[in-house]
Amino acid sequence: MPERETDAELLRAAFRDVHGARLHGFALALLLGNRADASRLAAETLAHLAAEAPRLRHPERAAAALRAELLRRARRGAARGTSSAEGGSAALSRIGIDEATGRALAGLDVAQRAALIATDIERFGDADVAVILGLSVPAARRAAGRARSRYLARYVRPDGDRARPGSIAERLELVASRAMGAST
Fold this sequence. Notes:
Elements: H1 2-30, H2 35-52, H3 62-80, H4 89-94, H5 99-106, H6 110-121, H7 126-133, H8 137-154, H9 167-182
Helix pairs in contact: 1-2, 1-3, 1-9, 2-3, 3-7, 5-8, 6-7, 6-8, 6-9, 7-8
């Protein structure tokens, strides 16, 4: 029996190793660069689901399940008003994100940011985005489209230029790479 416990602990450790950095990056982008809240939420979420790793029915869906749980926790924190005020453009600029991108992201609610990050940065498939958002696949597609449109409508560079639709993935990939780099 002790050998079985060791195997379970090794699986939990592998789960944390495989998913930890990317989940923290997701949290950092989702929470607009708020390092304290991102670290706390990512750690809580990872600990919660790592404990369930040996019983996961669909391990290939673990990344989506982690993001769904993190989003639920972020929404609960926002509803309780427990999220600190460190979000927004200033916090994003500390991890190298330009002001226009920061303002556009700050103009989205947490679920819209999750949809945008999941689709345009992490390139999750429709089924995984639906899991993350807790919606049906068609509803998740619509939510991601609305989030993308809202982001594009809010993105205005200092020179007054607006984002081109094709540039959203490029800008958001920069956000993600910087957030992922800042997460370690």
